[in-house]
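Interim report to the steering committee. The following record documents the input for Coatomer subunit gamma-2 isoform 3 (659 residues).
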Amino acid sequence: MASFFDVGSKRKDKKEEDEGHGAVYAKLDKTAVLQEARLFNQTPLNPRKCVHILTKILVILGQSDKVGKVEATDTFFAMTKLFQSNDQNLRRMLYLVIKELATIADDVIIVTSSLTKDMTGPEVAFRGPAIRALCAITDSAMVQSIERYLKQAIVDKSPAIASAVLTSAYKLMAVCPEIIKRWTNEIQEAASGSRIMVQYHALGLLYLIRQSDRLAVTKLIQKFTRSTLRSPYAYCLMIRIVAKQLNEDGHSSNPQLFEFLESSLRHKSEMVIYEAARAIVSLRNLTAKELAPAVGVLQLLCTSSKPALRYAAVHTLNSVASNHPAAVTACNLDLEQLIGDPNRSIATLAITTLLKTGNELNVERLLKHVSPFMSEISDEFKIVVLESIRALATKYPKKYTVLLNFLSGLLRDSAGYTFKKAVVVTMESIIKQVPEAKSIGLLQLCDFIEDCEHVKLTQRILHLLGREGPYLKRPRQFTRYIYNRIMLESAPIKCTATTALARFAAHNEELLPSILVLLKRIMIDEDDEVRDRAAFYHYILSNNQAALKSAYLLSEEMHLSPSGLERALLDYVHNAHSVSASAFSLATVPIADISVQSNVDALNSGVESDNIKIKIPPVELYCEYNLVVKLRLMRICAGFYDVHEWMNHIDNISTEQRH
């Protein structure tokens, strides 16, 4: 029998492939393709041309261009003429297009008789596809008229025909479940047979029919766990059904089912062995003793010659290590061998698993393994490794020096913004969690911003310096780095650096005189906002009022709506000279519903890593939000008063906030 994908009588030669013969489907015009369907009316039919046109129609249906109901109906009626040909490729392609047009065209039931004829005909190659197409266009009323043929097809000698009915029954369950339930005897007979795919499809359909009846599911499990399932696919499905039952009822209450999973670890099929191991480690409340057999099997699979098995094994061990690191420790030697695996995904998972299972004594040795590995993988995989390093820092805070040195070395490597942002966030989390790490961590970040090409990263680090630096023993050492950014960088960085510098002065009286001098220099900067900030902070610091410092420099958050504040200020300045005018109060400004949460950027970039993600708060939200509010206040007032007068009005503003 000719292959379905062999649309011509002969295979394209090498020359045609080199010339890009398949590009004919790249840019298709919907109208032109649908007009080509008129060739279906020719006599005699040209099967090869018709297959080519049907392929184009399938491509059009899969594209974003929507085919109208009238167009689809006209094309569908033209296609009915193709039943005159007995060419296998043409007929099977016709079945595919019928299924696609069934939901768009009108009166698709006109092909029911033709499909029924093919379904009951002697040609085996037509029967299976005809059943699928017929079930795609039928409704609950029509199913009853063909039910007899479908039930007979379930126990047909041809596996392709039986599987076609069983898979179609999955869809019919949504249309007429009561009719499908009447086929239980035939489905059970198919599930007890020896045909691999038929047994798999039949078992899945039986479970679908009985899944809402716990007693029926229990009987199903008892029957098929005691008998020998010949299909490895059906065996894997049964393992999943058993695992679901154990998670619902608890593995301790069903020791026989747990024994079934353990016995499946000794199956001859590698697929079944892995599925059983994965099912066991996914069960809740397991002891180390109960996990050991599954972990041992996964350890053996790590040494397999098949990359798919190695990947599956190390991926599962990685997830186990998140909750049961001690159980995976025995696999460390095999995992270390996988670091050099040519498949970078396997190597990355091996590294992250080792980092999860590592103890405080071997952190340095693990990082020595990681260092050369990081230079060989893409940023996408580097970020996955960083997630495990961050978890390791949380687990062993005393190792902050080793971890920070390793992370600062990564900042010096050539990499993209996303990866360096992940490194900075990881260092920031260590600095927050370990007070002793603040000084060394901030100094390493200061070295990084001396030659950082990413504006947002520099802003983030400057904000961190302004928040943490003033409270350290030697705050003066950080002001030089901050002022360098004001002298050498762009306006956005200058603004953030100015704010950070002012915070140092607000908290440290010994730094106040020198920083006031620096702010005076910044007041002649060429950028408006930089000058505004410098003037604003110079005014607050030179007045040396604790209330002003607390409200505008030392407070972390000012949850006011910028647009609401602007409206309130405009109303205030317009009515400032009226008799009934009173001092402006922030209590009249609505509070913005902004919550600074660490859930904005997940760094897997489409790469899953077992429910662990680095969460990055947006620097724009918490670095600049207060100043958006404060500077908008300044500019609005400056539009109505001269400099001295609007400064006086700022003094009159009440700093009471609504709580």
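The chain is about 65% helix and 0% strand. The committee is asked to note this result when reviewing the revised timeline.
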